[in-house]
Amino acid sequence: xxxxDSAATSLRKPPAVARAMARAVRGLSSPxxxxxxxxxxxxxxxxxxxxxxxxxxxxxxxxxxxxxSSATHALNIAIHALVKPGSRVVISGFEHNAVTRPxxxxxxxxxxxxxxxxxxxxxxxxxxxxxxxxxxxxxxxxHVSNVFGSVLPVEEIAExxxxxGVPLILDVSQxxxxxxxxxxxxxxxxxxxxxxxxxxxxxxxxxxxxxxxPEPLLRGGTGSASRxxxxxxxxxxxxxxxxxxxxGIAGLLEGIRFLESEGVETVRRREEELLARLAAGLRxxxxxxxxxxxxxxxxxxxxxxxxxxxxxxxxxxxxxxRDVAVRAGLHCAPLAHETAGTLxxxxxxxxxxxxxxxxxxxGFLEILKELLP
Length: 373
What we know:
Layout: E1 2-3, H1 15-27, H2 37-57, E2 65-68, H3 71-82, E3 88-92, H4 97-105, E4 110-114, H5 121-132, E5 138-142, H6 154-164, E6 168-171, H7 183-186, E7 190-194, E8 206-210, H8 246-262, H9 264-283, E9 288-291, E10 302-307, H10 312-321, E11 324-325, E12 327-329, H11 334-340, E13 347-351, H12 358-371
Parallel strand pairs: 1-11, 3-4, 3-5, 5-6, 6-7
Antiparallel strand pairs: 2-8, 7-8, 9-10, 10-13, 12-13
């Protein structure tokens, strides 16, 4: 298979991920729920994963690293912590439904969209700043568009939010593991990410990096403060009700260790080279409109294209029949398509990851050429 859908999930994992998950199924019980060997081993594994994530993202304390089931779960926790009925919220023009749907479900929330063109960080920053002048209650910004790979200037947006005292949630679903991220320097209230994309871990895992202690989204057993009728008031226990996904956490730990050994900067350069090959190859084909940045550093992991006279969904299916994995349509991000002017047609998205191989890019371009009219 030619797999170019890493923006959806990292299908190919480092071999150590599967091995760790198999060992966890056989030998790890629940952390904090017993003094016997498999419970202690689970606690060590969970803490090692928090420590590895804290190192990778420069989080002051491992306790600020909270396990979730997905980036969507993490975003819901963060949004409900900051956004209340009647709040005013500023978001970028490239947000995923994992951001917009929770926001619109809260009664009487006013959502203000900072619209700006693709691959123009200055315009994106200025659009955000104009709406920050309205003194919103919170802001949410994606780091990298899951549709177009457009890198937003989150460092500058975070600085503007700090200067105005506006709490900020960053959705780093497409950048975690692919671009350098410094939680301490950003100063955002929350960073939300999946474990199964750039972190090379399994599905069913995610992380929420917390700059404050929020209200929990779920309540239940934590293995701590069991006499209390309320959830513990400290992290990570306050946000981790229920039994941990230890096979997932064990696999995620190995994914993060793989990134530490490779180096995020190495991954970034490799993905940038692959995207440049994709963009050049697509531009050389007749009738293909490519959404690609002209300047380095403005695009990460993904690019979209469409072909005159061809339905994007049908083209995606035709590629799938030839064992080429891409994603076509609206990519759960209609706001991003509306911003880019592709809402009616959708696009075909090709995306690369840490384990994408150059021959996959070349093979995809050859097969696509055969499908074009």
